[in-house]
Amino acid sequence: MLLFNVVLTSLPVISLGVFEQDVSSEICLQFPALYQQGPKNLFFDWYRILGWMGNGLYSSLAIFFLNLCIFYDQAIRAGGQTADMAAVGTTMFTCIIWAVNMQIALTMSHFTWIQHLFVWGSITTWYLFILAYGMTLRSRDNYQILLEVLGPAPLYWAATLLVTAACNIPYLIHISYQRSCNPLDHHVIQEIKYLRKDVEDQTMWKRERSKARQKTKIGFTARVDAKIKQIRGKLHKKGPALTIHTVS
């Protein structure tokens, strides 16, 4: 578990947080409205948090039960032996590594060589680990789990592919639906840049840029907002006093 949290999944998540770029910095300057997504809390609302929790719960159930069904009473060795707890557990962990890293890759919209290194390096590190771990424990009572059991078994590779796809297909459907039917601002800009509409349709591009520069109340700091409320409160208190003084 220490290796899983520190090496196998933490580095891809860090690369996502540090190097992910929805749109370029030049585009952000041309579309100030993109900065409203932060104050509007579009990325950390309860809908998104509960969605990720549900996604994690679904993936864990899919990895556990699909592997149990796949390896149930199935011979995976040349001698006809079925999979034991070590083989099934290692396969489940392999599916976890693939599912997590593939979902991180689907989340990214801007890839750098560092992100590729962390994502694919994380997966490679897992195979190197189980290979080295099996070699250190080898004796007449133990076997190399990857070289002797799982590696030669087509069922292991098929299970990895099937379970990884089952974990990521719902998320792929979700992001496809969101981009098609309910896109966020940066999704629209990404689509325009991908289809080169900013080059082919200058009129549309200028219109979208002008919309993004419309005045908005979003972006005031809490201190400025509090100061405005304080001034309004003072004016409201002075209003009745002035009225009474005028009548008298």
Automatic annotation (TrEMBL):
Membrane topology, from the record: Multi-pass membrane protein
Q: Which organism is it from?
A: Arundo donax
Descriptive protein name: Aminophospholipid ATPase
Q: Where in the cell is it found?
A: Membrane
Keyword tRNA processing included in the entry's annotation: no
Q: Which GO terms describe its cellular component?
A: plasma membrane
What GO molecular function annotations does the UniProt record carry, in alphabetical order?
ATPase-coupled intramembrane lipid transporter activity; metal ion binding
Q: Give the residue range of the signal peptide.
A: 1-17
Under the heading SUPFAM superfamilies, the entry gives: Calcium ATPase, transmembrane domain M
* Keywords assigned: Magnesium, Membrane, Metal-binding, Signal, Transmembrane, Transmembrane helix
TM stretches of this protein? 49-71, 83-101, 113-134, 155-173
Q: What is the lineage of its organism?
A: Eukaryota, Viridiplantae, Streptophyta, Embryophyta, Tracheophyta
Which ranges carry the P-type ATPase C-terminal domain? Answer: 1-183
Note one Pfam family from the annotation.
PhoLip_ATPase_C
